[in-house]
Write a structure and sequence with these properties.
48% helix, 16% strand
Length: 223
């Protein structure tokens, strides 16, 4: 590696160690991350290209391995990007583990935003809670349009009963980025509420996340 590149990398490292992540721009974070997998190459051009191609840091770190490989990245580079996202999600998860979720709402929202906002396919997750509103399980129940999800109402309630859950929180993402609930979102939520009522399973909320933010159906007065 040219000495100029070595010096630049050393300066990035020093800024990171002294000022933390806030001291680096998005492309510098990715650049430094890439150096872990590509130690003898100037990674700034690649970092900028990847951010432009995927539309930002969140979509890049959330991209599937196949999507990253289509950009010509080796498995070593793909692994470096994926471990960064996995570490960030694990850190956010620790903020809600073992705590009543309804009193840790902001922390839960941050985790859901990071985990789902940049997915390219709609995914529905269900958070199963005990009587103290502590998380029992966080499970992806299906992928695909909410419009096609009516057959899954029974699955959600059956799974809640199997886990001994007293309540659930529904979560799904809008790949468009706009978290505004659709009529299908509202209809599915009310169907699950009705099904749960008969089995003493409470639906606390349905949270929709998108790249531009998140929305609570309960907060909007829709349930």
């Amino acid at each position: 590696m040219p000495k100029a590149s070595e010096g630049h990398r050393a300066r990035l490292r020093q800024r990171l160690l002294e000022g933390g992540g806030d001291a680096l721009l998005d492309h510098e974070l990715v650049e430094y991350l890439l150096t872990l997998a590509i130690p003898r190459r100037d990674t700034k051009p690649l970092a900028k290209r990847l951010l432009a191609s995927f539309g930002g840091l969140g979509p890049l770190l959330s991209a599937s391995p196949d999507a990253l490989r289509r950009e010509g990245l080796s498995d070593g580079v793909v692994g470096a990007l994926r471990i960064a996202q996995a570490s960030a999600l694990r850190l956010l998860e620790t903020r809600v583990e073992g705590r009543p979720l309804l009193s840790s709402w902001d922390a839960l929202g941050d985790y859901l935003q990071a985990a789902m906002a940049h997915e390219s396919v709609e995914e529905v997750r269900v958070l199963f809670l005990n009587a103290k509103n502590i998380l029992l399980a966080n499970e992806a129940m299906w992928r695909g349009s909410i419009d096609e999800a009516s057959v899954h109402v029974r699955e959600v309630i059956s799974r809640a009963i199997a886990l001994g859950a007293a309540a659930i929180i529904l979560v799904h993402n809008h790949p468009s980025g706009d978290p505004t609930p659709s009529q299908a979102d509202i209809r599915l939520t009310r169907d699950i509420i009705d099904a749960g009522r008969h089995m003493k399973v409470t639906v606390h909320d349905h949270v929709i996340v998108g790249a531009t933010g998140r929305t609570s159906l309960r907060g909007l007065g829709l349930i």
